[in-house]
Each structure stands twice: as structure tokens, then as C-alpha cells.
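ARCHIVE CARD
Drawer: 12
Card no.: 0347
Subject: one protein chain, sequence and derived structure
Cross-reference: see card 0346
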Amino acid sequence: MKSSGIILGICAVLLMGAMEPIEAGEAAMACPLSSHARSKIVNSVSDFFYEGVYVAEATRIAPDPDPFQSVIHTAFASVLPEIGGIVGELNLVKACTSAIDYDAYCEDAYIPNLNLNFCIRSGCEAKGIYTTLVYWTTPPLTSPDQRASLEYSVAHPDRTVTYDPNPHVLWRIDSTVPGFEFVTGTIQNHVKLSVAGEKPLRLSHSGVISIIKDNKNTHISSLALHSTFPALVRSQDAVVVDIRADESQGSGSINMGNRKLATIEIHPENIPDLLTIVWNDACAGAQNSPQFVPAPRLRRLSAHTNMIVTEGLQ
């Protein structure tokens, strides 16, 4: 492991938590997912979607024959259920020329009443390929290799979120094709949500988001997201979410086995409210109206070395 001046600064942003999507009505008995489960699926998928869009749009890599003259801005993001998360940018002083991992950087997440750190470890997978691992820990743990359970509680109503082990998300930026950046985010979360008076909701899920971007004008050419929730309903098929989009339109679906539970629509012109969810059949309830899933509100923080200064709400 090598410590380096590769990180000139870190601009970290605290996501104050995506708004709960507007429910389309209570589901009929035939729907395999409870209203609560539907809501949390939408939250998890939309958070990952907006994280990927942010990382792609904020990343800018302009290589130079002299690696010290390159302009390298890579981005990262990670959201925790019920409390929000972080997004930010890394300004690198040197282009990736070979494989290396740099020392991890950790800060207090500054979330009221919770003792949590967020950490990042940047590195190079190979020439032209940049990685940022983002993870959450409880002090004094700081290393990404120190995997341990992480639990926190929030009020109104009383809810407890348990990760076992603590959550990681890996962002990978491939700049080896001239004129384009290939952004990939990967998650594998083992998580349970407990609400007072209800059975725990097993929200464990895996996911991959892949985005192709023109690096001259930050224009996203295509996006694909795939996420699987294997244990939401006992003795049932996994819930699978797929989204595909290009520069003008996009769509997706939420499925359980051969049954399509919901349709996802993407409207690039409606920034920041890009996503709508339309639940089908019994899962739609009486009103059968779409759920509008807005982008999270942001509070920007700036971090340099070991200091974080609040700059206010965006």
C-alpha cells in the first residue's frame, strides 16, 4: 500500500436521503410484495441509478503525454438506507499508468446521533483504468479489509438497518478508448431493515450499473442497470430490476420470475426527476398512478486532508 499526494482534494457531498416515492395505493392480496417492500425496492434502485449518473457526469479524464499534466477528476457515491449518503470527486495529480492501490481516507460522516465513518480508497487497475472503493465503517475501523457488521437506528418510526458485513461500492472508470469513459458501479449488500412491530425486511441485493459517456461534453450515451433482490419473499423467485437508456429515452421493469410487477420509465428531459415507476395489476392498488422518484437533495461538504467544512445546501 502506498500513500501519495495523488489526491489533491476531496469534495464530499452528503445526500440527505431521497424522498419516499409516492405510493400508488395499497396493494391487493395477490401482489407478492408489501407496500413497504415496494417502496424500499424503489429507493434502493433509484439511489443506485442517481449515484451512477452523478459519477458519470462528474468524472472528467483528459490524458496528456506527460502523466503529471493530465486532468483527472474521478467521482464516487454511496447511499445508506434511511439516512442518506455521500458523493464527491477526486482530483488526481497523475494519470494511471499501472496497477496500484493508495491508502484509504476516512472521515466522520457527521450524521447526527450516529457514529459512522465513510471511507474511500482510490487506485489504478491498469493503465487508463481508475478505481474508487467507497465503504462505511464504525470507528475505530478504517481499512476496507476489516469487514464487520454495521448497524444503526433512526426514529419516526423506529427503524434499524443491519449490514453484515459493512457496505462497499466499487466505482471503475475505464478511459482506454479515446473520446469515451466507461463507468461501472458494483454493489453486493447483505442488509436487513427492521421496523418496530413488523417482520424484518430482507433487503439484501446485488447490482451493476454501466454507463458510457462522451468525455468532451459530459454527455451520457447509454446506461444499463441490473439489480437482484434474492430474499425479499420467502419461497419465491428473486425480484429483478433492469433499466436501459440512451441519450433520448429509457425504460425498465421490476420482475419476479415470469411476472412483470412494474414498468420503469426514464425521461431525460425531466431532470432531476428522471424516473417514474408504474406498478402493474394488483401491485398498483386502486389509483394505478405512477410513482415519481426525484433525485436526492444534496448538502455539499468540502474535505481537504483531515478537515471538513460545511458549504451549505445545494
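Annotation on reverse: Confidence is low (pLDDT under 50) at residues 1-28, 297-314. The CA atoms of residues 25 and 286 lie 6 Å apart.
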